[in-house]
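Regression test case RT-17, inverse folding.

Input:
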């Protein structure tokens, strides 16, 4: 795994995290956020989870890249799947076999539990 691979995967993950975030009134805030709005601690947690997920799913990621999309879309799917949103790895067109690559990646993502973003008092995004 190269650092560019991890960076692209994390970029997809963070973009998705920010995309689903809402403010206290339930209004979307994602369009107003960037990587600069992420707390260093949040980025450290995200980095660790993304790096571990990629290492644990290396052969299935190769299949994903050949058949589904790029590292950014995989990071997006990892975020959605671990948080049990209505889409993710399991929702792809090839996901008819729960024991295949997407089924294994879905099961693997769920092991990480949920992790939501929120804006702290300092205006930075943290994760639970």
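Golden output:
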């Amino acid at each position: 795994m190269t650092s560019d691979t991890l960076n692209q995967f994390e970029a997809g993950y963070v973009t998705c995290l920010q995309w689903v975030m809402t403010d206290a009134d339930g209004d979307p805030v994602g369009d107003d956020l960037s990587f600069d709005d992420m707390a260093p601690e949040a980025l450290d947690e995200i980095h660790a989870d993304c790096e571990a997920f990629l290492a644990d799913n290396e052969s299935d990621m190769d299949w994903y890249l050949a058949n589904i999309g790029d590292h950014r879309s995989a990071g997006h799917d990892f975020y959605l799947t671990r948080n049990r949103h209505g889409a993710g790895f399991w929702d792809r067109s090839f996901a008819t076999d729960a024991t295949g690559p997407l089924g294994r990646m879905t099961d693997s993502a769920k092991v990480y539990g949920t992790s939501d973003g929120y804006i702290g008092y300092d205006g930075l995004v943290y994760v639970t």
